[in-house]
Amino acid sequence: MSKLVLSTSSSTPKSRPSWLADHALRRFISRPPRAARAARRTRCRRRDALIVGAGHNGLTCAAYLARAGKRVLVLESRERIGGACTIEEPWPGVRLSPCAYLAGLLHPLVIEELNLGALGYSWSPASNGLFVPFEDGSSIQLYDDEAQCEAEVVRFSPHPE
Prior knowledge:
Helices cover 33% and strands 14% of the residues. By secondary structure, the chain is of the alpha+beta class. The protein has a domain at 7-45. The strands form 3 sheets. It has a two-stranded parallel sheet with strand order 1-2. Strands 3-4 form a two-stranded antiparallel sheet. The longest helix is centred in the N-terminal third of the chain and has 13 residues, at 18-30.
């Protein structure tokens, strides 16, 4: 990486005073990158509401506020939005939604009012309870049915009785 040295020496061409060259260079060097300038413009805009967290609840709030004509800014610290309604890959080749059951708690009125069905949203309850995979390749299936669930726990237990 090369160094840029600012100088007020008389080595600057006579047609241009050295202070002018130094001023131009300092301005160029101190100018923030394009992303920083865009962020500054965003910060300066007036907002009616600030939503911290772009999970499914934050996005739902933002959608209702925006529909009401409010100017909304949603901030998220993660690389992607969606919160519980995302797909994670906790282990190579294993893709799952960490909190998919929460999507089932979404009120039907919200689904209807935000027209989520037309946007591709659909949800159906799991018919086999809870499936839990482990890193060693084993897994346990916890069923809603007590007898099935007990049989699975016994199968999984290292000391069946």
